[in-house]
Amino acid sequence: MSTGTRICAVDELVTDQAVRVLIDEVPIALVKDSAGEVHAIGDTCTHGDISLSEGFVEGETLECWAHGSKFSLVTGQALNLPAFEPVPVYPVEVVDGDVYIDSTTTKEF
């Protein structure tokens, strides 16, 4: 059993496509990358108030559609300008095929 909030079955996630989820008013971009790993990062670009889940997934990055800033799905780090501040990364667990996210804590890197 997980301590996080159940979001969906992992099989419901489309590979390399971000989905916006809201947990207790916390916007999160949920992504299953091409390697099958599931990631959860803050869904708001730190350069502008833009939903990252509307952007493009490539490898382990999520690109903001508005100005092209890319964020690491693993660390949340902004990888290029114009963004320079990271987004939060939330713990994800897959238990019995279901995806759980803990929105009350963030991973430290």
The class by helix and strand makeup works out as mainly beta
How many individual β-strands? 9
- The backbone outline, from C-alpha atoms, is globular
Looking at how many chains there are and whether they match, the oligomeric state comes to: single chain
**Into which percentage range does the β-strand content fall?**
35-45%
User: Unreliable runs, pLDDT <50, ≥5 residues?
Assistant: none
Helical residue percent band: under 10%
Average pLDDT score: 96
Tell me about the largest β-sheet. Answer: 3 strands, antiparallel
Instruction: Record the strand order, biggest sheet.
Output: 1-9-8
Number of helices: 0
N- and C-termini, Cα separation = 26 Å
Report the radius of gyration as a whole number of Å.
13 Å
- Series of H and E elements: EEEEEEEEE
What report would you give on this structure?
With 109 residues, the chain is mainly β. Helices cover 0% and strands 36% of the residues. The protein contains no helices and nine strands. The strands form three sheets. The chain has a three-stranded antiparallel beta sheet with strand order 1-9-8, with no helix packed on it. A hairpin with a 2-residue loop joins β5 (56-58) and β6. The radius of gyration is 13 Å and the shape is globular. The relative contact order is 0.25. The model has no long low-confidence stretch (mean pLDDT 96).
